Amino acid sequence: MARYSSSTGDAPVRAQRATPDDAFRKAREHWLKGRKIHLASLAEELNIGRATLFRWVGNKDLLLGDVLWSLYDPIRKSALSETPGEGIDYVVGVYRTINLTLLNAEPVRRFISHDPEYALRILTSASSTVHSRTVNANTQLLRSEQDKGRLKLPMKLESLSYFMVRLAESCLYSDVICGREPQLEELEESCKAVRILLGGSVQK
Questions:
Q1: Can you give the pTM of this predicted structure?
Q2: d(CA 10, CA 63)
Q3: Residue 2 has what pLDDT?
Q4: What total number of domains does the chain contain?
Q5: Three-state SS for 204?
Q6: Do 157 and 142 contact (CB within 8 A), yes or no?
Q7: Is residue 50 within 8 Å of 39, Cβ to Cβ?
Q8: What confidence score (pLDDT) does residue 179 get?
Q9: CB 112 within 8 A of CB 103
Q10: Same domain? 39 vs 71
């Protein structure tokens, strides 16, 4: 028997079948509210089979990676468009803005506090889509400034990009990595370190 949704017209309208976008939006909604994502429950809520959901999202880790990236990417794009300057100053400014925002992002802090080890794996492991996307995005930033003649990097671009991301992660997730609460002062120190890595100088 066909399912129907309500309509303003007189004729019944067939209810729309859930889509991969619906699965993502629902998972994101749950995560932002502090709820854990369970694929079985999500499939039931969307009225689809588990096999269909797995085909759409891959697995829970990949889905959560997409959810986290949907939070990170707008922050990154905003920083790219709103940060003044060029070259080293621009790159350091973008780095500072992104990581300061993440440092104060309540959904991220809650995710880490609820399940520290799992959160760290999703956010920073070599197999993490969040980590790899962050490195790729940072690499694009460095390459763009380099191609414009605004940066003369003292080391291999890809290595520098990776070091920058790992440095940021060590500040943002220090509570899980070494039991020390993330601090704004340490993030500012990491900005100085990034400036030095880029070949710049800092005031003592």
A1: 0.87
A2: 39
A3: 36
A4: 2
A5: coil
A6: yes
A7: yes
A8: 87
A9: no
A10: no
Q: Does residue 143 belong to any structural domain of this protein?
A: yes
Contacts of 138 (CB under 8 A, 6+ apart): 161, 164, 165
Distance CA 94, CA 84 (A): 9
On whether both 71 and 157 belong to a single domain, the answer is yes
User: What count of residues does the chain have?
Assistant: 204
Domain ranges, residue 75: 60-197
Do the domain assignments include residue 6? Answer: no
> Is the separation of the CB atoms in 72 and 102 below 8 Å?
yes
DSSP 16: P
| pLDDT, position 147 | 97
Long-range pairs of 85-89 with CB within 8 A, sequence gap ≥ 24: 86/145, 86/148, 86/150, 87/145, 87/150, 87/151, 88/151, 88/195, 88/198, 88/199, 88/200
| 190 domain residue, yes or no | yes
Distance (Å) of CA 9 to CA 3, 12, 17, 48: 16, 8, 20, 27
Co-location of 74 and 141 in the same domain:
yes
Q: For residues 92 and 95, what is the distance between their CA atoms, to the nearest angstrom?
A: 5
User: What does the pLDDT profile of the chain (204 residues) look like in tens digits?
Assistant: 333 233 444 444 445 789 999 999 999 999 999 999 999 999 999 999 999 999 999 999 999 999 999 999 999 999 999 999 999 999 999 999 999 999 999 999 999 999 999 999 999 998 889 999 999 999 999 999 999 999 999 999 999 999 999 999 999 999 999 888 999 999 999 999 999 999 998 876
